[in-house]
Task: structure prediction
Amino acid sequence: MTKPCASLRVFRRQTVLLIAVFFMLPITAKGRENSVTAGLAVREGYDSNMHRTDENHVLQWTTTLTPSLNFVSQGQSDRLDLSYAPGLQVVDHESSEPGVDKPADFAERSVNHDLTIKAEKDLARDLQFLLSEEYIKADDPDLRPHFMWEPDRGLYVSETIERRRYWTNAASLAMRYAYAKDSSLAIGYDNRRLENEDANLAGGYDRHHPTVTIDHRFNEQWRTVAGYAYTKANFQQAETLSATATPTDDLVSHNPTLEVDYNPWLHATAFGSYSFDKYEYQNGLRDGYHLNDSRLGWRQELGPKSTADLSAGYSQTNWDAGGSEGGLGFEGHVATTLGQTTVSCGAAKGFEARYFDGTDSGLSKYWRLQAALMYQLTQNLTTDLSASYRKDKFIEARQGIEEDVSQVATGCSYKLSRWAILSLHYIFHNLTTTADIGDYDDHRLFLELRTSRELWRW
Result:
């Protein structure tokens, strides 16, 4: 994958910012509201196994000071959000195995960046424009639980690979036209990029992703959603390949989808869906394939704060070179809030293409379980607990590799005042794999004090 120069990356961000500012410029200041909010966060972190290895662990202590500034401007038909949070970070490393021949302990200093731009504007009564961009430069994968990964919402870097310096950029543009009541046409474009600073690490990519979606409601009972997505992705190849490494190949995919909903009564929806995913490799280093997925499902509001959804069906993969593999799949989720307690749990089984989490793992057969609980002990004190398990059997890019990922997380947050929150969180992560990297455990602990206060409003 060809790396763009720094000036091009700056140009991209400046272009998005200028477009956002242009669309947000008010014709008149009447009814407009602006605000500036400043914040400061101090975090102490501990990682028992920063390199994600099965032995000779390297311990890591991290101190991060993150000031932040957020500007919001809202008018009668538009809104602009700009935020920037640089993180000043000091990292100490230490081997957990005395006597092991490793580099001397050392401290690193670095600056992380988190820049976000979001804009929306009603160009007409039925026509809406949306824009967003997020740029992150850091060395720590996203700490969201593995089961919460949503590949079409935001950027994600897998926590199963070792700490390394990387940057990500996600920019999107969308237009939505409401041509009738509860019916709309949406056209969008999304560009995401992940790049590792170490040239010997693969998994980086540059993805272009235009989409079109028609959401049409025929009457109170019947609704259809039809869409098409095109993806072109260029992947970052490691400069030094191991003997067992999978060659990187650029990708093109086509993804038409169709869903039909039927509402038999209030707060209940029966639905059927079909998707077709066609994956083609540009240089022929991997075998292309297409994936068919058909589902029937049910969504139900069980109460004011309770929901449940369940779908099941059949998926089949057909390889361009011949052969196929299929199986039954399902997905279910239940969430409820009872008093001060919020509980959710779910399970899923099926096929998933994983190209954009920093691992370029390709197609896998998986199943997963998850559960989460949040309890508000007092008006100012909240606790949470979550657990997840996921099993993957990779059948394409990492053919024959199996992974079992378990994670448990718990923590509490205490509101010290109107502007300050103190939080403590612990995460346990376990990976069991047939890959050469081996099995490992990782314990992480975080203590953070976060403050924010509005400075001006006019």
About this structure: Confidence is low (pLDDT under 50) at residues 4-8, 143-155. The helical segments are 6-24. The longest helix spans residues 6-24. Residues 333 and 346 are 4 Å apart (CA to CA).
